Amino acid sequence: MAARQEKQAFRKKIRAEMQLIPDEYFHQAGQVLCRQVAESEIYRQAKTIFCFVSHGKEPNTYPLLEQALADGKTLCVPLCKAEGEMDAKVIHSLNELQPGAYGIPEPGENAETLLPSQIDLAIIPCLAASRDGKRLGKGGGYYDRFLAAYTGKTVLLCPEKLIFDTIPTEPHDILLPKIITEKEA
Question: Tell me, what DSSP letter sits at residue 20?
Answer without folding.
Answer: T
